[in-house]
Amino acid sequence: MAKKKLKSDIRDRVVGFERISKDDIEPHPLNWRIHSETQRQKFRSILSDVGFASAIVARKTESGRVQILDGHMRFEEHDGDTVPVLLVDLSDEEAERLLATFDWIGAQASADETVFRQILDKHSQDLEDVFGDQIKLDQLDGNVELSPVTPQDPPECTWVLIGIPTVKFHDIALLVESLADRPNVIVKITSNSDNINENNQKR
Q1: pLDDT for 125-181, tens place per residue?
Q2: How far apart are CA 193 and CA 47, in angstroms?
Q3: Under a CB-based contact definition with an 8 Å cutoff, are residues 170 and 130 in contact?
Q4: Which of 40, 68, 103, 155 is the most buried (most CB within 10 A)?
Q5: What three-state secondary structure class fits 201?
């Protein structure tokens, strides 16, 4: 005898899927995500390889415009006249809460070293442009540490030393890149295992 499905208390807020003209879409004014040029280059690499394979999450405002909640960079980097949009029915307050939590919650995930390594080993050449500057694909063991360098300008600096397993470095890679893109910030990445990756940038 088939089991009776229990009614879910979770509301389904998805109301449709459409391909919408970019002229009718606008970013959310409270979008807090900052995308560095390095991140955009990596995204363009996977776009060129695989294509556009993820819909933008957006809602229709009272003015009739379509407001992005998730996928601002995907929208900006899409070169077509229309983009695939997953439409949700949310109030202003609900939209802001979703905007705040989308990437934040996703970033809390940890990495399964074995599975992640299987993917990278299998697709190392295809993913080199994405992961090449962050993780040496053939050396995923050991710890990555930020080691101090001799400051030049500005004369007063605050140094931060972080140690993180190499297989988890991708969890903070975008944050490190965004910091490296800031003026007068020096980022040096070294490893205690055969110098996995060294990047000394001063901008």
Answers
A1: 777 777 765 545 344 444 445 455 555 555 466 666 677 766 566 667 777 777 777
A2: 32
A3: no
A4: 68
A5: strand
